Amino acid sequence: MIFSPRGMIIILVLLLILIVITTQEGDDREDQKQTAIPDKEKGGAVVTLQGVGISPQAPNPQSVLRATVQTHPPDSESVSYRYLWRVNQKEAGTGQLLRPGPFRLGDIVSVEVTLIDKETAKAVSSPMAASMQMGNRPPVLTQIELSPIPVYAGNPIRVEPTATDGDADLIQFSYQWQINGSFVDGNDQDILSGEQVKSADQILVVVTPSDAYGKGEPKNSSILTVVNRPPQISSIPPKGGKEPKYFYQIVANDPDLDSLKYTLLKGPSGMVVDALSGLVTWEAVSVSEDQTDVELEVSDGKGSRVTQQFKLIVRAVQ
Predict the structure, then answer these.
(1) What is the tens place of the pLDDT at every residue in 153-182?
(2) Model pTM above 0.70
(3) How many C-beta atoms lie closer than 10 Å to residue 63's C-beta?
(4) What percent of the chain has pLDDT over 70?
(5) Rounded Cα gap, residues 108 and 134, in angstroms
(6) Are the CB atoms for 191 and 198 separated by under 8 Å?
(7) How far apart are CA 146 and CA 258, in angstroms?
(8) I want to staple 139 with a disulfide (CB 3.0 to 4.6 A). Which of 39, 84, 102, 216 is the partner?
(9) What is the C-alpha separation between 125 and 161, in angstroms, rounded?
(10) Residue 93: pLDDT above 60?
C-alpha cells in the first residue's frame, strides 16, 4: 500500500502521540513504585508519608526543635527519613533535631522531610514540609500572696508570687505597690517597708512576670487592709476635790502612732475638754446627783476609739 505524503504525515503524528502516552504511563508507574514501599514487617502494607510537624508548638530561641513525622502504617521499619532544616530560607541542619543557635525570636523555621527506602537508600516520596515562626510563651501568674496577715502599722509587707512558664524559662517579677489607690514611686521590690504602712491603709501590689523574651500579663494582688488598733488611756481621773476648779489631763497613746482627738460625751454643765491636748476643765460647783457622771472619748480619726467613764464626788445642793 502506497501512502500519499499527507497520509504519511498523519501516521507519523499518530505514532508520536502513542509514544508520548506510553512514556507518561511508564513514568506514572515508576512514580507510584517509588512512593509506595511495601512494609515487610506488616504484611506488605504500603508505607506512605502522611504529615510533617515541628515540636514544641510554641518554641522560643532556647528550645530544641524536633521534626515529627506521620506515616501510614505508623512505626514502619522499612523506611527512614531525610531531614532538611531551614531558617529564613537558609539551610540550618539535617538531623531530626535542631538545637538552639541558628534561630532567634521572630525567625521563620521550616523542616523538609523525605521518605527513604532502607534497602535502596533512595528517596521514595516527594518532600513534605512544615514551618513555624519562632515565638515565646510568656509566663502566667497563678498566685499572689501577701504576708503577714493581719498586718499592723509599721510592719513591712512581703509579696510572694507564683507563676508558670510553658517553655520552662527562668521567670522574673516586677512590682508596683499601691496604697489607697495611689502608686508608690521608686519601689520595684517584693517588700513594702514598714515606714510606708499606716493604720487603716488599703494596700495591693501589681505583679508582672517576665522571661528573657517578653512579659506576661500583670495581675493585682488582693487588697490588704492594715489593722487599725484603738487608742489606750493610761491616766486615772480625779473624783473631785476642794479646789474651785477641776482639772484632769487625759494621758493616752495610740499603738499605730495616729493623731488623737478628745471628746466629752457626758458631764456636768460647764465641763469642757480640749480636743487636741485632752485637758479637762470644770468650774467645781455643786450639782445634783444625776449630773456627776462623766464619759470621755479618745479617737484616732480612723474609726477606732476608746472611752473612759467615772463619777464625780460633789457637795450636795443646799
Answers:
(1) 999 999 999 999 987 889 999 999 999 999
(2) no
(3) 21
(4) 82
(5) 6
(6) no
(7) 24
(8) 216
(9) 52
(10) yes
Q: Tell me if 137 sits within 8 A of 166, measured CB to CB.
A: yes
> What residue has cell string 479618745?
298
Whether 272 contacts 282, CB under 8 Å: yes
Three-state secondary structure readout of 130-186: EEEECCCCCCEEEEEEEECCCCECCCCEEEEEEEECCCCCCCEEEEEEEECCEECCC
Cell (9 digits) for 123: 528517596
Assess contact for 113 and 83: CB atoms under 8 A.
yes
Q: 77 or 288: whose pLDDT is higher?
A: 77
Q: Centre a 10 Å sphere on the Cβ of residue 91 and count the other Cβ atoms it contains.
A: 11
- Helices and strands (H and E) in the chain: how many: 1, 25
C-alpha cell at 31: 512514580
Residue 216 has pLDDT above 50, yes or no: yes
Amino acid at 32: Q
Element of type H or E holding 15: helix 5-35
- Distance CA(173)–CA(129), nearest Å, equals 39
3-state secondary structure of 288: coil
- What is the predicted pLDDT for the residue at 35? 43
Percent of the chain surpassing pLDDT 90:
58
- 3-class secondary structure, 55: strand
In which residue are the cell numbers 502521540 written?
A: 17
Q: Which residues pair with 205 in a beta bridge?
A: 177
Neighbours of 165 (CB within 10 A): 18
